[in-house]
Amino acid sequence: xxxxxxxxxxxxxxxxxxxxxxxxxxxxxxxxxxxxxxxxxxxxxxxxxxxxxxxxxxxxxxxxxxxxxxxxxxxxxxxxxxxxxxxxxxxxxxxxxxxxxxxxxxxxxxxxxxxxxxxxxxxxxxxxxxxxxxxxxxxxxxxxxxxxxxxxxx
Length: 154
Known about the structure:
By secondary structure, the protein is an alpha+beta fold. It has helices at 34-40, 43-55, 95-100; strands spanning 14-16, 19-23, 30-33, 58-62, 69-75, 78-82, 88-91. It has a domain at 14-101. The chain is globular and about 40 Å long.
């Protein structure tokens, strides 16, 4: 799966109706992909977090999935680590609930125009995405998603 950038524990995979979340069983932080974050929060809030990360400094923490340095993105008093390579977002304990207004695991109503950005290219003509986790589609030789290890159709 992935490794917690704060405590080094192995992350769990939690498949929810709005996408896969990767909570840390030790420190209660959570990793999500940017497309999943767009479903959990408003697409505008997720995009704002992504855009701020372009100017954010590289942290000492590593991305839970690819191991590259996370970039700091802040919105008000919320701080997140964003991987500009694999589009993962690391949120410290309680930050997901703060960003979305919902506790982790609570059902969230669909946001936006009803389209599913994980199903194909994003509206800006971006990469194909894994339908399970929403990360950019990278298929390992065994036919599974590089990020969430879901079996992908050819």
